[in-house]
Specification:
By secondary structure, this protein is of the alpha/beta class. It contains 14 helices and eleven strands. The strands form two sheets. It has a six-stranded mixed β-sheet. The protein has a five-stranded mixed β-sheet with strand order 2-1-3-10-4, with helices on both faces. α2 (50-66) links the parallel β1 and β2 (71-76). The longest helix is centred in the last third of the chain and has 37 residues, at 262-298. It is globular.
Length: 348
């Protein structure tokens, strides 16, 4: 064997031995465990609410799957840890890693929250509100303002808010005699329009309607009312919608978000962006089939407001819009953008 062949043989034996040794070492070394995170999530939805399952449980499943189990959401329904109005502060301070709220519950912190929770009788179709949020940049304006409080803001979905009432509204006097469960900007609007609107937690809503404490309420639209069994005691579903808006929001502690590895931060943000479109479209589909079902099975009737009642409500609504624009320079900017958009659509 010549010198070159001998050297090549020795080198081959050395590489083979080295490969075996490295493989054995890797096999013997313990696997490096990836860090896992568990987030407490306080919802403003009772467990019976359709959105608790369709929005929150869905997000729990999506994040578990896409992080390979590295991020777990521990869910708490409305009132389990904090009152709904306290959730924003708890997330802002990092006591909770995540929560769901109505924008109305954050009006003292986010000046755009009144517009976000839905200016009454502004949009006529859901796609218009979707485009306002995502196409014209309103969602980013909300996100920037919430970030000042260490909160990452993500609208869960856009949908109509429609009332249920125990007796049909046939005249303006019928409307002004109502006692209505409401919240946020709509509560203020309904009161200023002439009804008596007051806030009642979701967990107490059914009993309030059943006992006559209130004559009507809004909890989403048909889907929300059905999930809360409101049609058992209020057989009239009122249209048109009081508003169309991003009435549910997922909020995340920026402190908790920043503790995640970069890949997981991106997964969370992408999942929240996706949630907006998935849940908006799913909600509209379920609205249609739910309303048809309660009409057929529970004797629910659609109560379309008379034209004169609608006209008076629209005038009252537009007067209220300007009040929301006075909250801050940011709110005025958003309101001007909204009015310009509605003018382009031919509504103003």
């Amino acid at each position: 064997m010549n010198l070159f062949a001998k050297a090549r043989k020795n080198f081959t034996v050395y590489v083979s031995a080295l490969t075996i040794g490295v493989t054995a070492a890797l096999s013997a070394a313990p696997a490096v465990a990836q860090e896992t995170f568990t987030w407490k999530v306080q919802s403003h939805w009772p467990g019976a609410s359709s959105s608790y399952t369709d929005s929150l449980v869905r997000l729990q499943r999506v994040l578990d799957e896409r992080t390979d189990g590295r991020l777990k959401l521990k869910l708490y329904e409305a009132g389990a840890l904090f009152k709904a109005q306290e959730t924003f502060n708890a997330v802002s301070r990092g006591i909770l890693e995540m929560g769901t709220i109505s924008p109305a519950y954050a009006q003292d912190k986010v000046s755009l929250a009144g517009i976000a929770s839905g200016l009454p009788f502004a949009f006529r179709n859901v796609w218009e509100a979707e485009y306002f949020h995502q196409g014209l940049g309103f969602e980013q304006m909300l996100r920037d303002e919430a970030a000042e409080h260490d909160v990452y803001w993500a609208t869960d979905k856009v949908y109509p808010t429609e009332m249920v009432v125990k007796k049909p509204i046939k005249t303006w006097e019928d409307f002004t005699s109502l006692r209505i469960r409401s919240s946020g900007a709509l509560q203020k609007f309904l009161t200023e329009a002439g009804a008596a609107a007051s806030y009642i937690p979701g967990s107490e809503l059914y009993s309030a309607l059943d006992s006559g404490i209130v004559d009507g309420a809004h909890w989403g639209a048909a889907q929300g009312a059905a999930s809360m069994a409101l049609y058992e005691v209020a057989k009239y579903h009122v249209q048109p919608a009081l508003n169309i808006a991003g009435t549910d929001v997922i909020i995340v502690s920026m402190k908790a978000l920043n503790k995640l590895p970069e890949d997981m931060q991106k997964i969370v943000k992408d999942a929240l962006d996706e949630q907006f479109w998935v849940r908006t479209n799913e909600y509209l589909y379920k609205e249609r089939i739910t309303l048809a079902k309660v009409i057929a099975e529970q004797g629910v009737q659609v109560n379309v407001l008379p034209d004169d009642v609608q006209d008076k409500l629209v005038k009252a609504a537009q007067a209220m819009w300007d009040e929301e624009g006075k909250r801050s320079d940011n709110a005025k900017k958003a309101l001007d953008m909204l009015k310009g958009y509605l003018a382009e659509l031919g509504y103003l």
